[in-house]
């Protein structure tokens, strides 16, 4: 699972989930320092992150074997240099400072952050997912007025279906209209056939 350092995820590794860090979250710590305070140290860190993302742009359209090989050849040495850079500069900045906190975030999560380099199918960050849930996050105050816990759970289920339909290349309105029309007569034992990743329009199922 690719994620940030949110405490709610901490129980998952104990259940067998392998944690991979989100490099964008690590980079963001330094980006904010550079943008707000023109930090030279943050600027140096951003250069390393830029090189890592440059490798990712290079391998984006390649197959798994080629992606793994190029990551090993190019990204891994950059990660090694970045880790040494982080360790060295952490010894030179005061604890509690903003730059120390940014460095500590990456060092504390280094195993998770560097996990992707050895796994070709693993992305460097979870921006792809975050971009798709951003509309929900932006509107979260509206969900406070769903009416009840049960209504909120239903809203979450419907939104999950809509996003799953999009991921499956299905137009959500056409999907929902078809499913709602078929649900009253759909056998309970076959209701899973109406899930987005298994759904076929009624005219295509005959």
Task: Offer a concise description of the structure.
With 206 residues, the chain is mainly α.
How is this structure best described in words?
This protein is mainly α and 206 residues long. It folds into 2 domains: 2-127; 139-204, no CATH class. Helix content is 60%, strand content 2%. The chain has 9 helices and 2 strands. Strands 1-2 form a two-stranded parallel ribbon. The longest helix has 27 residues, at 64-90. It is elongated and about 70 Å long. The chain starts with a strand and ends in a 24-residue tail after the last helix. The mean pLDDT is 90.
- What is the helix content? 55-70%
Q: Based on DSSP secondary structure assignment, what is the total number of beta strands?
A: 2
Strand order of the largest sheet: 1-2
* Helix-strand makeup class: mainly alpha
Q: How large is the count of helical segments?
A: 9
Order of helices and strands: EEHHHHHHHHH
Shape: elongated
Percent of sequence in beta strands: under 5%
The poorly predicted ranges are: none
Rg:
22 Å
Q: Between the first and last Cα atoms, what is the distance in angstroms?
A: 38 Å
Count of domain modules = 2
Average pLDDT taken over every residue: 90
Main β-sheet, in a few words? Answer: 2 strands, parallel
């Amino acid at each position: 699972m690719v994620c940030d350092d949110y405490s709610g995820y901490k129980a998952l590794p104990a259940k067998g989930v392998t944690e991979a860090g989100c490099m964008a979250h690590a980079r963001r710590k330094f980006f904010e320092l550079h943008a707000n305070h023109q930090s030279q140290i943050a600027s140096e860190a951003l250069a390393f992150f830029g090189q890592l993302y440059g490798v990712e742009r290079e391998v984006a359209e390649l197959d798994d074997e080629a992606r793994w090989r190029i990551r090993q050849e190019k990204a891994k040495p950059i990660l090694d240099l970045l880790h040494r850079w982080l360790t060295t500069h952490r010894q030179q900045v005061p604890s509690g400072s903003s730059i120390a906190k940014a460095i500590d975030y990456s060092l504390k999560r280094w195993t998770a952050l560097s996990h992707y380099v050895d796994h070709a199918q693993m992305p460097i960050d979870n921006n792809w997912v975050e971009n798709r849930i951003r509309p929900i996050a932006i509107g979260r105050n509206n969900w406070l007025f769903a009416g009840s816990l049960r209504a909120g759970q239903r809203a979450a289920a419907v939104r999950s279906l809509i996003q799953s339909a999009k991921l499956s290349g299905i137009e959500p309105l056409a999907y929902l209209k078809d499913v709602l029309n078929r649900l009253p007569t759909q056998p309970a034992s076959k209701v899973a056939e109406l899930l987005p990743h298994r759904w076929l329009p009624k005219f295509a199922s005959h």
